[in-house]
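Mods, move this if it's the wrong board.
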Amino acid sequence: MDGFITLEALTEFPVLVLLVGIITQFTKRGLDWLFSKIFNIISMPTEIISLVISVILLISISYANGALINKSTNEIFAIIMMNIVNAFIVSLAANKGYERIKSDESVIAKIQKRK
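Not the wrong board. C-alpha cells:
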C-alpha cells in the first residue's frame, strides 16, 4: 500500500464526497473566524465552503493526473469547466443535498404544497 488515499481512489465519487465533507468540517470554524476578521462576515455558509473545496480538489486531481498538461487552451478550459460542474455535484452530495431536496422542509416541497 503506497498511501492511505491513492490518486486513483481520489477519482472515485464516494471518496471525493467523503473528503469534501471531512475537509469542510475541519476548516469551517477556522474559515468563519478568518472571514469575520477580514471581511466582517459572521458566518460563511457551509455549502459555499464545500463548493470551493470541491473545485480546488477536482482541479488539483486533474492537474496531478496530467489532464491539464500539454493541452490547448480550449481543452484546458473545457476540463476546468467540467471540474466546476462536477464540484457542484460533489458538494451537493457532501452536504446531504438529496435529503434536503426530498425533505418536507425543502423549497421544492413548500412550492408543491402551495399548489
